[in-house]
Amino acid sequence: MAEHKEEPVAESMMDKISDKFHGGDSSSSSSDSDDEKKGSAAGVKAKIYRLFGREKPVHAVLGGGKPADLVLWRNKKVSGGVLAGATAIWLLFEVMEYHLLTLVGHCLILSLATLFLYSNVCIFIHKSPPNIPEVKIPEDMTVNIALSLRHEINRGFFTLRETGHGRDLKKFLIVCWLSLQFGND
To answer: Looking at the keywords, is Hydrolase present (predicted)?
Structure first.
């Protein structure tokens, strides 16, 4: 009796699997009539052809929004600007072998020169000069940073002194091994 119940379940599962492969529909007749009632909306959705059998458009696969618009070149000016900027950065750092610290220094000098010239030109064109805020570093914060830095430096000197006295062989070997590792780079 148990065998009799398992056969229809197995047959129905096989029917569903074969219908999936062959594209047939094994649903009941009531769902067929529901599909007909939906009208052309389901028919139009089924007619959309997407490359490689995707279910979602590429814009949705890329996450939608501005990053997807950038990658898909929907706004050509922004995408072109990003490409030009990335190319300029690549040319600076790879082709011309420019360094980041040098670039930051030159940008700071250029901004200072621009600000100086703008302040002097404002006198001739009767405009008010730019308002540059005054920056002050608090003394207590500076003292705390200096004290903590002094403590760390003294601790490092103490470790070097103890290692140099030969009291800790393990630390000596670790220092030698680290110096060999970083010395080869």
So the answer is: no
